[in-house]
Amino acid sequence: MEMYFWAFVVGGLICVIGQILMDVGKYTPAHTISILVVMGAVLSGLELYEPLIDFAGAGATVPITSFGNALVKGALSEAERTGLVGILTGIFEVTSAGISSAIIFAFIASLLFKPKG
Amino acid sequence: MLQGHQTWIFPSRPTIIATATVVGPHEAEGPLAEDFDLVHGDLWLGQDSYEKAEKKMLEEACEVAIRKAGLQKQDIQFFLAGDLLSQIISSSFAARTMAVPFLGLYGACSTAMESLALGALIVDSNSGNNVICGAVSHNAAAEKQYRYPTEYGSQKPPTAQWTVTGAGVALLSSGGSGPRVTSATIGRVVDMGLSDPFNMGGAMAPAAADTITAHFRDLGLTHREYDLIATGDLGRVGHKIAADLLQKHDLEIPADKFTDCGILIYREDQPAVLAGGSGCGCAATVTYGHIFNRMKKRELKRVLIVATGALLSPLSYQQKESIPCIAHAVSIEFSQKE
Asked: What is the pLDDT of residues B88-125, one digit of tens each?
């Protein structure tokens, strides 16, 4: 039950950071998302993101920062196995399912629906 | 005839013998729904793109105006119009359908009054007897071009405005009866250094104040000569700023006769419209629909319409340029005997 509380707090705080970037920092939504992804990647590199997931569960895996974490994790684990080239080949390893499904489902949706404005 | 620095007076007082307005679903939910000629429940207007829908609205508005005036297409000598899309395609493509000599205009949201001022100049100088002046904008087409695709669902601050889906045209004539265009003040481009495209009203307010000041100065008038002074699309945020600026110039206009088309067109509690309406179609539909109906009901005799435009492009905004703004004022009169 405690985990639900921390998921709510941590997930909410990440969103607060995004909202502040947009409202106070005047960043565009695209900039805001990129900054959050980079933040997740940096925390992952410092080995801080996994502990955050253990602590807050979905509060840390659902926000876009988790995507940055996944990019770094994929690159590092592949680098361990195949050396430096692994950074390039592994970067989308963990995230490829997410990226591919986003493209494929967006394509299917665009065939079936018309935007309402 | 030039009077003062930047004001034309039209001694022959060209007559607006007919107007027509076409709007979309959001405008139909607003308080002025009864004032429009055609109301569409569907943003697409049965077309396969929003751009085509925008063009269709302008074509429909022209057709209705010509029909109301009891004229034929071939009676129209010139067609003056503009819109917000790149290369003003909606106007050019509607002009292709009209097959009438055409001058395409771009004054952003000030186009409604830019076209009316130039049309009046043509009629007043005997260079044309029947001239159609108009402007059109479409919410989804403008959002796509200037901001983000709406499917992206990006957030907007409360100072942002909602582009009106609508077309408004006026048929100006050297004869006939109807409200008359008596003078027009052409605005200067004013740039106070604001660069936030989500606060266009605030950026445009100084231009509106500048043009109103020039109009009164050139003609030696005060607000007392007008029953209504309406800015184009400053919205709730920009209109307040314009009122404050005029007050600082000792030209305070009483709140009951100083209004804004962008405030009038939507209800305050209408979802997503935020600070109010904007776009070429805002001043055009509210003036040619709502304000003209009030003139015809004899509620208003003399009005000054100050259409405001933000002359930015998506590229200039991305390159972090500030927003140059403009406002054109046209004075319209409808007296008892006409």
From this structure: 999 999 999 999 999 999 999 999 999 999 999 999 99
Q: Tell me whether residues A117 and B43 touch, CB distance under 8 A.
A: yes
**What's the ipTM?**
0.72
Residue B113 CA to residue B110 CA, distance in Å, equals 6
Query: By CA distance, what is B159's nearest residue in A?
Result: A23
Q: Strands (DSSP E) along A13-96, which ranges? A: none
| Contact assignment for A117 to B157 by CB distance below 8 Å | no
Q: Does B140 touch chain A (CB under 8 A)?
A: yes
Interchain pair B139, A114: CB under 8 A: no
Q: What would the pLDDT profile of A26-69 be if each residue is shown by its tens digit? A: 888 889 999 999 999 999 999 999 999 999 999 999 999 999 99
Cβ distance of B50 and A117 shorter than 8 Å: yes
A47 at B interface, C-beta within 8 A: no
Pairing state between β B277-278 and B162-163? parallel
The upper half-sphere exposure of residue B210, i.e. CA atoms within 13 Å in the direction of its Cβ, equals 20
What six digits make up the tokens of B31?
A: 């308080």
A106 lies within 8 A of chain B by CB: no
